[in-house]
Specification:
Order of helices and strands: HHHEHHHHHEEHHHHEH
Number of strands: 4
Helix content: 55-70%
Strand order of the largest sheet: 2-3-1-4
């Protein structure tokens, strides 16, 4: 039984030499198919719309570039790396990309067909490639991909300029908010001191006027000896009034006049002069946005000389390989079909 099956098994084996002979006989067809595929690949590679990529490289600022932000508090130095992180957050925000589209001429470049935002946004978003600093990379970069090399470079530089302006605006707003908070705090402290001083002054005046009234009622003009009151309870209002009216009406009138004069001037309020000086220094601070640089442009974008896609050589090479494979498969399948028909006949 095994001898009967042996010939059938041998018939199903692939004869390598026969396979090579078949391919060699049909080499012209294989070459023709390969040539046609290569021609198609080359046609696509050279006729497809090219895509150019322009890149801007950005470095973190130095301490000198952000020292303007420390004007009102020299002890709280702004961290250059933190400012650069804030810039990168702005750079990758969708709000920046939407704001960029509102600039003159930008929408026409990225959406020449005039499609609705929902249809062109994905392509627009993918045409602006951002990279943040990595472990061994100190810089970040912005890459813009467009069919025109000059437009790609121009859009990349404009996008970075807008990101820098937007970041500076945010930093200035934060600075102004912190400065206004500091000013408001000092103004509150000044008003609090004035109110406290005014309340204390009113209380002292009330006591002196009450003592003056008593002194005038009893006709006491000159001071009397008040030592005999020293051993009594000084916390009692009556004892305090007794000590005061025994100063005599003349002395009490002078003190009342002096305290009333104090109420017309703030010069004698303890600590007020120092607060006023600090307030004037804060109000004199002016931030110059032109001196704030959240990022340094290491390399501006220039028009690239060659497109990044289509990769013509790679496309042609793949077309040749695929064409050769298709040609071989076609020849083998056709040979197998012919052999089967011959056996059946």
């Amino acid at each position: 039984m095994s001898e009967e099956l042996k010939p059938a098994y041998q018939d199903d084996e692939i004869d390598l030499f026969e396979l090579i002979e078949t391919l060699w006989k049909e080499k012209v067809l294989i070459i023709l198919i390969t040539f046609v595929a290569a021609l198609g690949g080359a046609g696509y590679a050279f006729m497809a719309t090219p895509t150019y990529e322009a890149e801007v490289r950005l470095l973190p600022p130095s301490s000198r570039n952000v020292e303007e932000l420390n004007k009102f508090n020299a002890n709280a130095n702004a961290n250059a790396n933190a400012v650069f992180d804030q810039f990168n957050q702005v750079l990758e925000s969708s709000s920046l990309k939407k704001e960029f589209l509102d600039q003159q001429g930008v929408l026409e470049v990225f959406n020449p067909e005039g499609l609705p935002e929902s249809q062109f946004w994905k392509g627009y978003n993918e045409s602006i490639v951002l990279s943040k600093p990595a472990k061994n990379v100190a810089y970040s970069s912005v890459k813009v991909q467009l069919p025109d090399a000059d437009q790609a470079a121009g859009m990349a530089n404009r996008f970075v300029a807008l990101a820098i302006d937007k970041t500076v605006s945010g930093l200035v707003e934060d600075f102004s908010a912190r400065l206004n908070q500091a000013i408001e705090k000092i103004e509150t402290d000044i008003q609090s001191k004035k109110n406290t001083y005014s309340d204390q002054l009113a209380s002292e005046l009330a006591k002196l006027k009450e003592a003056l009234f008593v002194a005038e009622m009893i006709g006491l003009k000159k001071p009397e000896d008040t030592d005999r009151f020293g051993g009594q309870n000084e916390n009692l209002m009556v004892d305090e009034m007794r000590r005061l009216y025994r100063l005599g009406s003349e002395a009490l009138e002078a003190e009342v006049a002096a305290l009333e004069a104090r109420g017309k001037s703030d010069d004698l309020i303890p600590g007020l002069a120092d607060l006023n000086q600090r307030l004037e220094r804060l109000r004199a601070i002016e931030l110059n946005p032109d001196k704030v640089q959240p990022a340094l442009i290491d390399l501006e974008a220039i028009a690239p000389l060659s497109p990044i896609k289509p990769k013509k050589k790679l496309i042609v090479a793949l077309a040749v390989v695929l064409g050769g494979m298709v040609g071989v498969m076609f020849v083998l399948i056709r040979s197998a079909v012919r052999s089967r028909k011959a056996k059946l006949a």
